Amino acid sequence: MNVLFVAKVLISAMIIGVATEVAKRHPFWGAVIIALPLTSILAMGWLYVETNDNLLVTKFARDIFLVVPVSLLFFLPYLLEKRTELGFIANMMIGLALLALGVWFLRRTIS
Q: How far apart are CA 93 and CA 88, in angstroms?
C-alpha cells in the first residue's frame, strides 16, 4: 500500500467521521457538511494528483454533475417516512433500489 492511498483513506474517513459527529448534535449542519461536494473535491483532487490528466478529471466532473440529481432519488423514502412509517432498513433498501434504477436509466440514456 502506498502513502498516497493511506492519506486518501484517512482524510476521507476523517471528513465522514466529523460529519456524523456533528449530525448527532445538529443534523442540519451535518447535512451541510455532507451536501458540500467534499467527496467530489477530494476525489477529483486525488485523481488529478495520481494521473495528472485534466481531461479525465473533466469527464469525471461531468459525470458527477449528471449523477447528482439522480442520486437524490435515494432520499425519497426518508422524505415520505412520516406517511409510510417503514423504518430505517426498509427506507434504506427502497432508496438503494430507486438509486440503482435511476443510475441504470441515466446510463442507458447518456451512453
A: 9
Amino acid identity for residue 28 in this structure: F
Burial of 82 (0-12, 13-18, 19+ CB in 10 A): exposed
Tens digit of each residue's pLDDT (9 = 90 or more) over 32-48: 888 878 888 888 998 99
pTM: 0.71
Q: Does residue 50 contact residue 5 with C-beta atoms inside 8 Å?
A: no
d(C-alpha 69, C-alpha 72), whole Å: 5
Nearest to 40 by CA among 19, 57, 17: 57
Closest C-alpha to 19, from 46, 47, 42: 42
Locate 79 and state its grid cell. 422524505
pLDDT single digits (tens) 61-76: 999 999 999 999 999 9
AA identity, residue 16: I
Higher pLDDT, residue 81 or 31: 81
And the C-alpha cell for 9? Answer: 483513506
